[in-house]
Amino acid sequence: MQIGMVGLGRMGANMVRRLLRGGHECVVWNRDFGKSEELQKVGAQAARSVEELVQALKRPRAVWVMLPAGDVTEEMVQRLGRLLEKGDVVVDGGNTYFKDDVRRSKVLAEKGIHYVDCGTSGGVWGADRGYCLMAGGSREAIAHLTPALRTLAPGMGEVPPTPGRSGGTAQEGFLHCGPVGAGHFVKMVHNGIEYGIMQAYAEGFDLMQSQGGTSVPGDMRYELELQEIAELWRRGSVVGSWLLDLTAMALQEDPKLARYSGFVQDSGEGRWTVQAAVENAVPAEVLTAALFARFRSRQEHTYAEKVLSAMREKFGGHVEPAKAH
Length: 325
Prior knowledge:
- The chain is of the alpha/beta class.
- 48% of the residues lie in helices and 12% in strands.
- It has 13 helices and 8 strands.
């Protein structure tokens, strides 16, 4: 299919590359035209303006917005709403708050424009591994986008379906989660869970690292090789995961994680998950504690925070803020 991509950052550009490899036609735009030119070299059509991108697409048009959540995405969706026509589709693939999706979709619906929110997980590795896609919107809009979603998703690969399953797209790595907002709601909770898993790994490795401290009795003092333990746990352990794989990679490169300060950002979804838990009166102690641990990391740093920071860099390319001088 033909699709427009607005925003060619770490994920947007890689998604275009994966779509192109899958035989799709991509028209791309980025504020920095140099990034558009890079993708033009591998088969994309580079537009010099959003207006040019829209004009280059055949109806019904599909424009995927891959920009940071907040005002930048809000302004772009409004802009596309003025340029697109009835039957066209706007996809927000960033980490937008699901309530904003619902509001935006109502504005676009007045012109007959479909709005799809698509939670996208895969980080900087998605170009090769594929992206886990959680979509919300009308059945008509999702059906139009399905060829692109199927290409972007990891596919079945070597992971067998859960016993008892009888088909469906979830086993391919993409899912129509429900009406507008449902995709980003599921992605929000996904990221809240991610906080909790990361925090558990971080605290565990911190505990093992601390067992070699001078406050521990000599006959119980262990100088554990954390990179070896991480590698061990990757094989047959019930705590194995891709996040553990990335932790093992970081520890192999630098067992002391000396280049990390332990200043850990939160990107919004963790806060929204806790807020939704409060609104729905759902206990979420682990997810809340994991979020608060990130707040604390900005005041004092432990080895646990260095582990968290290392994981964030490995899966998403998130770099710590520069140290103040």
